[in-house]
Specification:
With about 500 residues, this protein is of the alpha/beta class. Helix content is about 60%, strand content about 5%.
Length: about 500
Protein backbone atom coordinates (compact mmCIF):
# COMPACT_ATOMS: atom_id res chain seq x y z
CA UNK A 1 0.00 0.00 0.00
CA UNK A 2 1.62 3.26 -1.03
CA UNK A 3 1.59 6.43 1.02
CA UNK A 4 0.16 8.32 -1.96
CA UNK A 5 -3.24 6.82 -1.18
CA UNK A 6 -3.57 9.17 1.77
CA UNK A 7 -2.32 12.28 0.01
CA UNK A 8 -5.36 12.82 -2.21
CA UNK A 9 -7.66 15.80 -1.56
CA UNK A 10 -10.28 14.71 0.96
CA UNK A 11 -13.96 15.08 0.16
CA UNK A 12 -16.97 13.15 1.38
CA UNK A 13 -16.84 11.04 -1.79
CA UNK A 14 -13.36 9.74 -0.99
CA UNK A 15 -14.72 7.73 1.96
CA UNK A 16 -16.17 4.34 1.00
CA UNK A 17 -19.17 3.30 3.04
CA UNK A 18 -21.63 0.46 3.29
CA UNK A 19 -24.55 0.40 5.68
CA UNK A 20 -24.47 -3.37 5.96
CA UNK A 21 -20.74 -3.43 6.68
CA UNK A 22 -21.46 -2.39 10.24
CA UNK A 23 -25.15 -3.27 10.66
CA UNK A 24 -24.86 -7.01 10.02
CA UNK A 25 -21.93 -7.45 12.48
CA UNK A 26 -23.89 -5.36 14.99
CA UNK A 27 -26.76 -7.85 14.81
CA UNK A 28 -24.31 -10.68 15.57
CA UNK A 29 -22.92 -8.74 18.54
CA UNK A 30 -26.41 -8.11 19.92
CA UNK A 31 -27.28 -11.81 19.77
CA UNK A 32 -24.07 -12.59 21.68
CA UNK A 33 -24.86 -9.86 24.22
CA UNK A 34 -28.35 -11.27 24.78
CA UNK A 35 -26.78 -14.69 25.29
CA UNK A 36 -24.86 -13.41 28.34
CA UNK A 37 -28.05 -12.22 30.04
CA UNK A 38 -28.16 -9.91 33.08
CA UNK A 39 -24.62 -9.92 34.47
CA UNK A 40 -24.10 -6.36 35.73
CA UNK A 41 -20.90 -6.43 37.75
CA UNK A 42 -20.36 -5.21 41.28
CA UNK A 43 -18.23 -2.16 40.36
CA UNK A 44 -21.03 -0.72 38.24
CA UNK A 45 -23.16 -0.27 41.34
CA UNK A 46 -20.62 2.18 42.76
CA UNK A 47 -21.44 4.54 39.90
CA UNK A 48 -25.13 3.75 40.35
CA UNK A 49 -24.97 4.78 44.02
CA UNK A 50 -23.22 8.06 43.18
CA UNK A 51 -25.78 8.69 40.44
CA UNK A 52 -28.73 7.94 42.71
CA UNK A 53 -27.44 10.21 45.49
CA UNK A 54 -26.91 12.98 42.95
CA UNK A 55 -30.43 12.53 41.58
CA UNK A 56 -31.79 12.58 45.16
CA UNK A 57 -30.09 15.90 45.87
CA UNK A 58 -27.32 14.57 48.13
CA UNK A 59 -24.58 15.47 45.66
CA UNK A 60 -21.84 13.41 44.01
CA UNK A 61 -21.23 11.24 47.07
CA UNK A 62 -21.10 7.55 47.94
CA UNK A 63 -21.87 8.13 51.62
CA UNK A 64 -23.89 11.21 52.54
CA UNK A 65 -21.60 14.08 53.48
CA UNK A 66 -18.38 12.42 52.25
CA UNK A 67 -17.03 14.20 49.16
CA UNK A 68 -14.70 11.54 47.80
CA UNK A 69 -14.50 10.85 44.04
CA UNK A 70 -14.80 7.08 44.11
CA UNK A 71 -15.67 6.81 40.41
CA UNK A 72 -13.61 7.45 37.27
CA UNK A 73 -16.40 7.84 34.72
CA UNK A 74 -18.22 11.17 35.34
CA UNK A 75 -20.10 11.23 32.03
CA UNK A 76 -21.30 7.64 32.49
CA UNK A 77 -22.31 8.33 36.09
CA UNK A 78 -24.19 11.48 35.04
CA UNK A 79 -26.02 9.41 32.43
CA UNK A 80 -27.30 7.12 35.18
CA UNK A 81 -28.19 10.18 37.24
CA UNK A 82 -30.74 10.91 34.53
CA UNK A 83 -31.93 7.30 34.75
CA UNK A 84 -32.62 7.72 38.47
CA UNK A 85 -34.20 11.11 37.89
CA UNK A 86 -36.66 9.32 35.58
CA UNK A 87 -37.16 6.56 38.20
CA UNK A 88 -35.58 4.02 35.88
CA UNK A 89 -34.02 0.69 36.84
CA UNK A 90 -30.22 1.07 36.50
CA UNK A 91 -29.67 -2.61 35.74
CA UNK A 92 -32.12 -2.61 32.84
CA UNK A 93 -30.76 0.67 31.52
CA UNK A 94 -27.19 -0.57 31.84
CA UNK A 95 -28.09 -3.42 29.48
CA UNK A 96 -29.64 -0.99 27.01
CA UNK A 97 -26.59 1.29 27.17
CA UNK A 98 -24.36 -1.77 26.77
CA UNK A 99 -26.16 -2.90 23.62
CA UNK A 100 -25.92 0.63 22.23
CA UNK A 101 -22.21 0.81 23.14
CA UNK A 102 -21.20 -2.32 21.25
CA UNK A 103 -23.10 -1.09 18.18
CA UNK A 104 -21.40 2.30 18.59
CA UNK A 105 -17.98 0.65 18.65
CA UNK A 106 -18.66 -1.34 15.50
CA UNK A 107 -20.01 1.74 13.72
CA UNK A 108 -17.13 4.01 14.75
CA UNK A 109 -14.52 1.40 13.81
CA UNK A 110 -16.19 1.21 10.41
CA UNK A 111 -16.15 5.03 10.27
CA UNK A 112 -12.40 5.09 10.94
CA UNK A 113 -11.79 2.31 8.41
CA UNK A 114 -13.63 4.40 5.80
CA UNK A 115 -11.53 7.44 6.69
CA UNK A 116 -8.36 5.39 6.16
CA UNK A 117 -9.81 4.09 2.85
CA UNK A 118 -9.43 0.44 3.72
CA UNK A 119 -10.75 -1.73 0.87
CA UNK A 120 -14.41 -2.59 1.37
CA UNK A 121 -13.92 -6.36 1.12
CA UNK A 122 -11.71 -6.26 4.22
CA UNK A 123 -13.94 -4.07 6.33
CA UNK A 124 -16.46 -6.79 7.04
CA UNK A 125 -13.70 -8.99 8.50
CA UNK A 126 -12.70 -6.20 10.85
CA UNK A 127 -16.23 -5.44 12.02
CA UNK A 128 -16.90 -9.13 12.60
CA UNK A 129 -13.71 -9.41 14.68
CA UNK A 130 -15.25 -6.96 17.14
CA UNK A 131 -18.80 -8.33 16.96
CA UNK A 132 -17.68 -11.86 17.85
CA UNK A 133 -15.21 -10.83 20.54
CA UNK A 134 -16.75 -12.46 23.67
CA UNK A 135 -14.79 -10.38 26.18
CA UNK A 136 -15.66 -7.12 24.42
CA UNK A 137 -19.36 -7.96 24.23
CA UNK A 138 -19.49 -9.22 27.83
CA UNK A 139 -17.82 -6.03 29.07
CA UNK A 140 -20.44 -4.00 27.21
CA UNK A 141 -23.31 -5.51 29.22
CA UNK A 142 -21.67 -5.40 32.65
CA UNK A 143 -22.78 -1.85 33.41
CA UNK A 144 -19.48 0.00 32.99
CA UNK A 145 -18.32 2.62 30.50
CA UNK A 146 -15.47 0.65 28.91
CA UNK A 147 -17.04 -0.19 25.54
CA UNK A 148 -18.79 3.19 25.27
CA UNK A 149 -15.36 4.77 25.78
CA UNK A 150 -13.83 2.38 23.24
CA UNK A 151 -16.48 3.49 20.73
CA UNK A 152 -15.76 7.20 21.19
CA UNK A 153 -12.04 6.86 20.45
CA UNK A 154 -12.19 5.74 16.76
CA UNK A 155 -14.78 8.43 16.00
CA UNK A 156 -12.60 11.11 17.61
CA UNK A 157 -9.60 10.05 15.53
CA UNK A 158 -11.67 9.73 12.36
CA UNK A 159 -13.12 13.23 12.60
CA UNK A 160 -9.77 14.72 13.57
CA UNK A 161 -8.28 13.33 10.35
CA UNK A 162 -11.20 14.43 8.18
CA UNK A 163 -11.47 17.93 9.64
CA UNK A 164 -7.73 18.48 9.41
CA UNK A 165 -7.97 19.25 5.71
CA UNK A 166 -10.54 22.01 6.27
CA UNK A 167 -9.03 23.51 9.42
CA UNK A 168 -12.17 22.62 11.35
CA UNK A 169 -12.26 21.01 14.76
CA UNK A 170 -15.94 21.02 15.72
CA UNK A 171 -16.77 17.32 15.76
CA UNK A 172 -13.31 16.10 16.75
CA UNK A 173 -13.27 18.52 19.69
CA UNK A 174 -16.76 17.44 20.73
CA UNK A 175 -15.75 13.79 20.86
CA UNK A 176 -12.39 14.62 22.46
CA UNK A 177 -14.31 16.38 25.21
CA UNK A 178 -16.64 13.41 25.65
CA UNK A 179 -13.60 11.14 25.91
CA UNK A 180 -12.09 13.28 28.67
CA UNK A 181 -15.39 13.34 30.53
CA UNK A 182 -15.66 9.55 30.32
CA UNK A 183 -12.24 8.37 31.53
CA UNK A 184 -9.35 10.15 33.32
CA UNK A 185 -6.64 8.75 31.02
CA UNK A 186 -8.37 10.14 27.91
CA UNK A 187 -6.10 13.25 27.76
CA UNK A 188 -3.27 10.86 26.90
CA UNK A 189 -5.16 9.75 23.78
CA UNK A 190 -6.07 13.32 22.82
CA UNK A 191 -2.54 14.59 23.29
CA UNK A 192 -1.09 11.74 21.23
CA UNK A 193 -3.71 12.30 18.52
CA UNK A 194 -2.94 15.96 17.91
CA UNK A 195 0.82 15.67 18.31
CA UNK A 196 0.69 12.75 15.88
CA UNK A 197 -1.23 14.86 13.39
CA UNK A 198 1.42 17.54 13.75
CA UNK A 199 4.17 15.02 12.97
CA UNK A 200 2.14 13.98 9.93
CA UNK A 201 1.63 17.40 8.32
CA UNK A 202 3.95 19.67 10.37
CA UNK A 203 1.17 22.20 10.80
CA UNK A 204 1.44 23.12 14.46
CA UNK A 205 -1.34 25.70 14.28
CA UNK A 206 -3.90 23.02 13.46
CA UNK A 207 -2.83 21.05 16.54
CA UNK A 208 -2.29 23.79 19.08
CA UNK A 209 -5.81 25.20 18.72
CA UNK A 210 -7.65 21.97 19.66
CA UNK A 211 -5.05 21.22 22.33
CA UNK A 212 -5.67 24.60 23.94
CA UNK A 213 -9.42 23.99 23.86
CA UNK A 214 -9.03 20.57 25.49
CA UNK A 215 -6.57 22.07 27.96
CA UNK A 216 -9.18 24.62 29.01
CA UNK A 217 -11.73 21.83 29.50
CA UNK A 218 -9.26 19.81 31.58
CA UNK A 219 -8.41 22.89 33.61
CA UNK A 220 -12.08 23.46 34.40
CA UNK A 221 -12.57 19.78 35.28
CA UNK A 222 -9.53 19.78 37.56
CA UNK A 223 -10.62 23.01 39.24
CA UNK A 224 -14.10 21.63 39.88
CA UNK A 225 -12.60 18.36 41.13
CA UNK A 226 -10.34 20.14 43.63
CA UNK A 227 -13.16 22.42 44.76
CA UNK A 228 -15.71 19.64 45.25
CA UNK A 229 -13.63 16.58 46.12
CA UNK A 230 -10.37 18.11 47.35
CA UNK A 231 -8.00 16.23 45.01
CA UNK A 232 -6.73 16.94 41.47
CA UNK A 233 -7.31 13.33 40.39
CA UNK A 234 -10.11 10.84 41.10
CA UNK A 235 -9.67 8.97 44.36
CA UNK A 236 -9.76 5.76 42.33
CA UNK A 237 -6.39 6.72 40.83
CA UNK A 238 -4.78 6.92 44.25
CA UNK A 239 -6.45 3.65 45.28
CA UNK A 240 -5.34 1.69 42.23
CA UNK A 241 -1.92 3.14 41.40
CA UNK A 242 0.97 2.98 43.81
CA UNK A 243 4.15 2.29 41.87
CA UNK A 244 5.61 0.25 39.03
CA UNK A 245 3.79 -2.97 38.17
CA UNK A 246 5.38 -3.72 34.82
CA UNK A 247 5.70 -7.49 35.12
CA UNK A 248 2.03 -7.84 35.92
CA UNK A 249 1.27 -5.47 33.04
CA UNK A 250 3.23 -7.65 30.60
CA UNK A 251 1.30 -10.71 31.78
CA UNK A 252 -1.91 -8.75 31.34
CA UNK A 253 -1.05 -7.99 27.70
CA UNK A 254 0.06 -11.57 27.09
CA UNK A 255 -3.29 -12.87 28.34
CA UNK A 256 -5.05 -10.59 25.85
CA UNK A 257 -2.67 -11.62 23.07
CA UNK A 258 -3.36 -15.32 23.67
CA UNK A 259 -7.08 -14.77 23.09
CA UNK A 260 -6.84 -12.05 20.44
CA UNK A 261 -3.83 -13.24 18.39
CA UNK A 262 -5.09 -11.83 15.11
CA UNK A 263 -5.34 -8.32 16.55
CA UNK A 264 -1.83 -8.44 17.93
CA UNK A 265 -0.39 -10.04 14.80
CA UNK A 266 -2.10 -7.33 12.77
CA UNK A 267 -0.70 -4.64 15.06
CA UNK A 268 2.87 -5.93 14.83
CA UNK A 269 2.37 -6.54 11.12
CA UNK A 270 1.30 -2.93 10.71
CA UNK A 271 4.68 -1.82 12.04
CA UNK A 272 6.24 -3.61 9.05
CA UNK A 273 3.67 -3.36 6.27
CA UNK A 274 1.68 -0.19 6.89
CA UNK A 275 3.34 2.74 5.17
CA UNK A 276 0.47 5.23 5.22
CA UNK A 277 0.70 8.37 7.28
CA UNK A 278 -2.63 7.69 8.99
CA UNK A 279 -1.54 4.15 9.80
CA UNK A 280 1.54 5.54 11.50
CA UNK A 281 -0.72 7.93 13.39
CA UNK A 282 -2.64 5.02 14.89
CA UNK A 283 0.62 3.34 15.88
CA UNK A 284 1.72 6.59 17.52
CA UNK A 285 -1.44 6.49 19.65
CA UNK A 286 -1.43 2.77 20.44
CA UNK A 287 2.18 2.21 21.52
CA UNK A 288 2.41 4.81 24.33
CA UNK A 289 -0.97 3.70 25.68
CA UNK A 290 0.24 0.08 25.76
CA UNK A 291 3.28 1.20 27.74
CA UNK A 292 0.98 3.05 30.14
CA UNK A 293 -1.18 -0.05 30.68
CA UNK A 294 1.93 -2.16 31.27
CA UNK A 295 3.39 0.34 33.76
CA UNK A 296 0.28 0.37 35.98
CA UNK A 297 -0.07 -3.41 35.87
CA UNK A 298 -3.29 -3.71 33.89
CA UNK A 299 -6.60 -4.55 35.53
CA UNK A 300 -8.00 -7.46 37.55
CA UNK A 301 -10.84 -8.28 35.15
CA UNK A 302 -10.33 -11.19 32.72
CA UNK A 303 -12.13 -9.20 30.01
CA UNK A 304 -8.96 -7.06 29.61
CA UNK A 305 -10.89 -3.86 30.32
CA UNK A 306 -7.89 -1.52 30.04
CA UNK A 307 -7.04 -2.84 26.56
CA UNK A 308 -10.60 -2.58 25.23
CA UNK A 309 -10.20 1.09 24.18
CA UNK A 310 -7.65 -0.14 21.66
CA UNK A 311 -10.09 -2.66 20.16
CA UNK A 312 -11.18 -0.46 17.28
CA UNK A 313 -7.64 0.74 16.54
CA UNK A 314 -6.21 -2.79 16.70
CA UNK A 315 -8.93 -3.93 14.32
CA UNK A 316 -8.29 -1.17 11.80
CA UNK A 317 -4.52 -1.76 11.87
CA UNK A 318 -5.10 -5.49 11.45
CA UNK A 319 -7.34 -5.23 8.39
CA UNK A 320 -5.09 -2.53 6.96
CA UNK A 321 -2.17 -4.93 7.27
CA UNK A 322 -4.08 -7.90 5.84
CA UNK A 323 -5.30 -5.86 2.89
CA UNK A 324 -1.69 -5.39 1.83
CA UNK A 325 -1.24 -9.10 1.05
CA UNK A 326 -0.80 -10.01 -2.60
CA UNK A 327 -3.32 -12.30 -4.28
CA UNK A 328 -0.98 -15.32 -4.37
CA UNK A 329 -0.75 -15.21 -0.56
CA UNK A 330 -4.48 -15.33 0.05
CA UNK A 331 -4.60 -19.13 0.57
CA UNK A 332 -1.90 -18.88 3.22
CA UNK A 333 -3.77 -15.96 4.77
CA UNK A 334 -7.05 -17.91 5.02
CA UNK A 335 -5.22 -20.80 6.71
CA UNK A 336 -3.63 -18.36 9.15
CA UNK A 337 -7.00 -16.82 9.95
CA UNK A 338 -8.46 -20.25 10.70
CA UNK A 339 -5.59 -21.11 13.03
CA UNK A 340 -5.69 -17.78 14.81
CA UNK A 341 -9.44 -17.99 15.28
CA UNK A 342 -8.82 -20.86 17.72
CA UNK A 343 -7.77 -18.29 20.30
CA UNK A 344 -11.18 -16.66 20.00
CA UNK A 345 -12.94 -20.04 20.18
CA UNK A 346 -11.25 -20.91 23.48
CA UNK A 347 -12.27 -17.50 24.87
CA UNK A 348 -16.02 -18.07 24.52
CA UNK A 349 -16.34 -20.91 27.08
CA UNK A 350 -14.26 -18.89 29.55
CA UNK A 351 -16.41 -15.83 28.96
CA UNK A 352 -19.55 -17.88 29.58
CA UNK A 353 -18.11 -18.87 32.97
CA UNK A 354 -17.30 -15.23 33.83
CA UNK A 355 -20.82 -14.20 32.84
CA UNK A 356 -22.34 -16.92 35.01
CA UNK A 357 -20.24 -15.79 37.99
CA UNK A 358 -21.45 -12.22 37.48
CA UNK A 359 -25.08 -13.34 37.24
CA UNK A 360 -24.81 -15.42 40.41
CA UNK A 361 -23.02 -12.64 42.32
CA UNK A 362 -25.65 -10.11 41.34
CA UNK A 363 -28.51 -12.28 42.57
CA UNK A 364 -26.78 -13.30 45.82
CA UNK A 365 -25.51 -9.85 46.74
CA UNK A 366 -28.88 -8.27 46.02
CA UNK A 367 -30.48 -10.73 48.46
CA UNK A 368 -27.97 -9.67 51.13
CA UNK A 369 -28.45 -5.97 50.40
CA UNK A 370 -32.24 -6.21 50.53
CA UNK A 371 -32.08 -8.16 53.79
CA UNK A 372 -29.78 -5.60 55.42
CA UNK A 373 -32.07 -2.79 54.26
CA UNK A 374 -35.03 -4.49 55.92
CA UNK A 375 -33.52 -5.76 59.17
CA UNK A 376 -30.83 -3.25 60.20
CA UNK A 377 -31.31 0.28 61.58
CA UNK A 378 -30.78 3.16 59.11
CA UNK A 379 -27.69 4.33 61.03
CA UNK A 380 -25.90 0.98 60.58
CA UNK A 381 -22.36 1.17 59.21
CA UNK A 382 -20.98 -1.63 57.04
CA UNK A 383 -17.36 -2.43 56.17
CA UNK A 384 -16.54 -4.59 53.16
CA UNK A 385 -14.32 -4.85 50.11
CA UNK A 386 -16.62 -5.15 47.09
CA UNK A 387 -18.85 -2.16 47.78
CA UNK A 388 -21.17 -2.28 44.79
CA UNK A 389 -24.32 -4.36 44.93
CA UNK A 390 -24.70 -4.88 48.70
CA UNK A 391 -24.40 -1.21 49.79
CA UNK A 392 -26.53 -0.07 46.84
CA UNK A 393 -29.49 -2.20 47.90
CA UNK A 394 -28.79 -2.01 51.65
CA UNK A 395 -28.71 1.82 51.54
CA UNK A 396 -26.35 1.88 54.51
CA UNK A 397 -23.23 3.90 55.20
CA UNK A 398 -20.33 1.75 53.97
CA UNK A 399 -16.56 1.86 54.51
CA UNK A 400 -14.69 0.67 51.42
CA UNK A 401 -11.90 -1.66 52.59
CA UNK A 402 -10.09 -1.22 49.26
CA UNK A 403 -10.26 2.55 49.41
CA UNK A 404 -12.03 3.46 46.18
CA UNK A 405 -14.38 5.72 48.14
CA UNK A 406 -12.09 6.36 51.11
CA UNK A 407 -9.31 8.94 50.84
CA UNK A 408 -7.25 7.60 53.75
CA UNK A 409 -7.05 4.04 52.46
CA UNK A 410 -6.44 5.18 48.88
CA UNK A 411 -3.34 7.08 50.01
CA UNK A 412 -2.00 4.33 52.26
CA UNK A 413 1.31 3.04 50.79
CA UNK A 414 1.40 -0.61 49.70
CA UNK A 415 4.75 -2.34 50.16
CA UNK A 416 3.67 -5.24 47.94
CA UNK A 417 2.25 -3.14 45.10
CA UNK A 418 2.44 -4.98 41.79
CA UNK A 419 2.20 -8.46 43.30
CA UNK A 420 -1.46 -8.59 44.31
CA UNK A 421 -4.77 -8.26 42.50
CA UNK A 422 -4.62 -5.20 40.26
CA UNK A 423 -6.57 -2.27 41.62
CA UNK A 424 -7.20 -3.96 44.97
CA UNK A 425 -3.88 -3.72 46.81
CA UNK A 426 -4.46 -0.76 49.12
CA UNK A 427 -5.84 -1.57 52.56
CA UNK A 428 -5.73 -0.23 56.12
CA UNK A 429 -7.67 -2.49 58.55
CA UNK A 430 -6.47 -0.60 61.64
CA UNK A 431 -7.97 2.61 60.30
CA UNK A 432 -11.22 0.92 59.25
CA UNK A 433 -11.90 -0.77 62.58
CA UNK A 434 -10.91 2.31 64.54
CA UNK A 435 -14.18 3.70 63.13
CA UNK A 436 -16.10 0.80 64.76
CA UNK A 437 -18.32 -0.30 61.83
CA UNK A 438 -21.31 -2.32 63.01
CA UNK A 439 -20.95 -5.16 60.51
CA UNK A 440 -17.95 -6.49 58.63
CA UNK A 441 -18.69 -8.61 55.56
CA UNK A 442 -15.56 -10.60 54.57
CA UNK A 443 -14.75 -10.80 50.88
CA UNK A 444 -14.81 -14.60 50.78
CA UNK A 445 -17.66 -16.81 51.88
CA UNK A 446 -19.84 -14.14 53.44
CA UNK A 447 -22.93 -15.53 51.68
CA UNK A 448 -23.00 -19.18 50.70
CA UNK A 449 -24.93 -22.40 51.05
CA UNK A 450 -23.40 -23.34 54.40
CA UNK A 451 -22.02 -21.76 57.54
CA UNK A 452 -18.38 -20.75 57.52
CA UNK A 453 -16.08 -20.49 60.50
CA UNK A 454 -14.79 -16.94 60.01
CA UNK A 455 -11.24 -16.34 61.17
CA UNK A 456 -9.51 -13.10 62.04
CA UNK A 457 -7.69 -11.99 58.88
CA UNK A 458 -3.97 -11.10 58.71
CA UNK A 459 -3.27 -7.45 59.44
CA UNK A 460 -6.43 -6.90 61.49
CA UNK A 461 -6.11 -5.08 64.85
CA UNK A 462 -5.15 -7.17 67.87
CA UNK A 463 -8.38 -6.28 69.65
CA UNK A 464 -10.59 -7.15 66.66
CA UNK A 465 -11.99 -10.31 68.27
CA UNK A 466 -12.59 -8.42 71.50
CA UNK A 467 -14.95 -6.08 69.64
CA UNK A 468 -16.59 -8.37 67.09
CA UNK A 469 -18.44 -11.68 67.13
CA UNK A 470 -18.59 -13.97 64.08
CA UNK A 471 -22.16 -15.10 63.36
CA UNK A 472 -24.05 -16.96 60.67
CA UNK A 473 -27.62 -16.04 59.75
CA UNK A 474 -29.93 -18.22 57.61
CA UNK A 475 -31.38 -16.26 54.69
CA UNK A 476 -33.38 -17.82 51.84
CA UNK A 477 -31.69 -21.20 52.03
CA UNK A 478 -28.17 -19.77 52.36
CA UNK A 479 -26.05 -18.41 55.19
CA UNK A 480 -24.80 -14.89 55.82
CA UNK A 481 -21.41 -15.34 57.55
CA UNK A 482 -20.34 -12.01 59.00
CA UNK A 483 -18.69 -10.26 61.94
CA UNK A 484 -20.95 -8.11 64.11
CA UNK A 485 -19.84 -5.48 66.62
CA UNK A 486 -20.71 -6.48 70.17
CA UNK A 487 -22.44 -3.14 70.75
CA UNK A 488 -24.62 -3.47 67.64
CA UNK A 489 -27.56 -4.67 69.73
CA UNK A 490 -27.60 -1.24 71.38
CA UNK A 491 -28.56 0.20 67.99
CA UNK A 492 -31.41 -2.25 67.66
CA UNK A 493 -29.42 -5.12 66.19
CA UNK A 494 -31.30 -6.94 63.46
CA UNK A 495 -34.65 -5.47 64.45
CA UNK A 496 -37.63 -7.62 63.65
CA UNK A 497 -35.59 -10.56 62.40
CA UNK A 498 -37.03 -13.48 64.38
CA UNK A 499 -34.80 -16.31 63.22
CA UNK A 500 -32.01 -17.27 65.56
CA UNK A 501 -28.54 -16.13 64.59
CA UNK A 502 -26.11 -19.00 65.00
CA UNK A 503 -22.80 -18.11 66.67
CA UNK A 504 -19.76 -19.53 64.96
CA UNK A 505 -17.16 -20.97 67.30
CA UNK A 506 -13.58 -19.88 66.83
Amino acid sequence: MSSSQTDLPITSRTYPSSFWMWVSPSVLALFLALHFGVCTQDDAFISFRYAENWADGLGWVFNAGEHVEGFSNPLWTALFGLVFWMNGDPVHWSLFFGYASIVLLIYTTHHLACTLKIPTQWMWIGMTMIALDPSMVLEAVQGLESVFYAGLLPLTISYAIREREHEQHTKSLLFSGLLCLTRPEAPLFVGLLYTGLWFRDRNWKKSIQPLIAIGVLLGLMTGLRIWYFGDPLPNTFYAKVGGWAGMRGVQYCWWHCQHHPLMWLGFFGSLIWVRTQNGRLLQWIVIPYLLYVISIGGDFKPTSRFLLPLGGLFTVLTVQSLSGFKSHKRILLVATLIILSLGRITLLPKTNVWAQIRRDNLVARKVVGDWLAQYTPPNTTLAMHSIGVVPFYARRHTIDMWGLTDRTIAKTPSSEFGNGMAGHEKTNPSYVFSKDPDIYLPEDGFFQGSTKVQQKEPGFPKDFEDKYNPISIPIEGSWLNIWVHKDFKNKGGFGEWKKISVPVDN
